[in-house]
Design a protein that fits this description.
Blueprint: E1 9-12, H1 20-29, E2 39-43, H2 45-49, E3 56-59, H3 65-68, E4 73-77, H4 91-109, E5 116-118, H5 123-128, H6 136-143, E6 152-156, E7 161-164, H7 174-177, H8 180-196, E8 204-208, H9 223-237, E9 241-246, H10 254-257, E10 262-265, H11 268-279, E11 284-288, E12 294-297, H12 314-333
Parallel strand pairs: 1-2, 1-5, 2-4, 3-4, 5-12, 7-10, 8-9, 8-10
Antiparallel strand pairs: 6-7, 6-11, 11-12
The chain binds 1,4-dihydronicotinamide adenine dinucleotide and the ligand NCC(=O)COP(=O)(O)O.
Ligand LD2JLWAY is lined by residues 135-137, 153, 272, 285, 296.
Length: 334
């Protein structure tokens, strides 16, 4: 059994107008039923108070969360220029979500927090305030001094884990951005992450094709033969257990899933659709290849239901539990 954590987790609230504040407050409410470790929320307390009437314990350091956790939701307060209305994102809210992310990562990097769990942010809002990264994954990587190509975004559910090689790209740009080197580096990050974060000593990676039927022997596209197969061969030559390229439409049924520990997919939707279809309530976005542990729920800001008490906290609870489990594995094997 993994050792208990010595410091609480840092949980950024995400966009204050999204469902992050609500699901995090509901996680604290249900902390025993969800079997959650001690955590400290980070963000604007007004965004929590707008959607939840439970107790909030303002703290200034995650370690204070240990004694505050039984009294209320421990929260490190960030001043936002204005209070947001649930469902109505603003520029001030986007800045607040970025500040919370920045602080949470800093706390984990300085070992003041055992891991980071990030609440959902709206990429459109962040891009509008000049955010230069495709998503939080690449931002956290940069803050940790890791090249974005050397981390992997894994979506992990109870019966399926997937990793997209390309993340937030236009569909029309994917083929051009897909290189053997990128497939290899994502594959390595995924395989090492399965060992380090999930305690799987000899992980098996199944690699998808890009085109229908994995290119149909070259008749439906050349990427499989020219880019993907050489990357698989290079990873196999390093001793990793890698298979493919597999046709993406037939690699996610139950019997196929039993043959691998993670699927490396060529683009965002190829990886995320099967996990969300199978496990929307409890799949977790985990960034592999970092010196810290970072997880997030699989969903976004859900502005359409924010402030209506309709947000399901189970994905956030799964993200908090997985962060604690991953951090404990890493501490035990360090
Ligand atoms: N990790 C992150 O920060 C992520 C952020 N996003 C961002 O979120 C924004 C909205 O993205 P969408 O594609 O609309 O995805 P979304 O996940 O926010 O919403 C999709 C649908 O699922 C529902 N839903 C989502 N989470 C739910 C929950 N916990 N309980 C009940 N219903 C839930 C929503 O109401 C909506 O109908 C985008 O700006 C996107 O960039 C999207 C995915 C992940
Ligand atoms: N669709 C997944 C997603 O948007 C998560 O991205 P990130 O912000 O965690 O990089």
């Amino acid at each position: 059994m993994a050792s208990p954590l010595t410091t609480p987790l840092a949980v950024s609230l995400g966009d204050p107008a999204g469902i992050g504040p609500e699901v995090i407050a509901k996680c604290w409410d249900n902390r025993s039923a969800f079997n959650l470790p001690v955590f400290a929320a980070i963000g604007d307390p007004r965004s929590v108070a707008a959607v939840w009437d439970g107790p909030i314990e303002l703290i200034s350091d995650p370690r204070e969360a240990d004694s505050a956790f039984d009294l209320g939701l421990p929260l490190i307060q960030l001043a936002s220029a204005e209070a947001d209305t649930p469902g109505h994102p603003s520029v001030a809210g986007a800045h607040c979500s970025l500040d919370a992310l920045e602080l949470a990562v800093g706390l984990a990097r300085s070992s003041s927090a055992a891991a980071v769990v990030t609440g959902p942010v709206a990429k459109e809002q962040l891009y509008a305030i000049g955010f230069q990264h495709p998503g939080q994954t690449e931002f956290v990587a940069e803050r940790c001094g890791i090249s974005p190509g050397n981390v992997a975004m894994m979506l992990a559910g109870p019966t399926l884990r997937t990793v997209p090689v390309t993340t937030h790209l236009k569909l029309t740009d994917i083929s051009q951005k897909l290189t053997s080197a990128l497939i290899e580096s994502r594959g390595r990050a995924a395989l090492r992450g399965l060992q380090r974060n999930f305690g799987i000593p000899e992980p098996r990676l199944a690699v998808s094709g890009l085109n229908p039927h994995a290119g149909e022997g070259g008749m439906l596209g050349a990427e499989e033969q020219e880019i993907i197969a050489p990357a698989i061969a290079a990873l196999a030559a390093e001793g990793w257990r890698v298979s493919g390229p597999h046709p993406a439409d037939t690699m996610f049924h139950a019997r196929a899933r039993a043959a691998y520990d993670a699927a490396l997919c060529m683009y965002h939707d190829q990886a995320l659709i099967p996990v969300k279809a199978l496990h929307f309530e409890d799949s977790v976005n985990v960034t592999l290849g970092l010196p810290i542990v970072r997880t997030a729920p699989d969903h976004g800001t859900a502005f359409d239901i924010a402030g209506q008490d309709r947000a399901d906290p189970r994905p956030m609870a799964a993200a908090i539990r997985m962060a604690a489990e991953n951090a404990a594995y890493r501490a035990d094997s360090a």
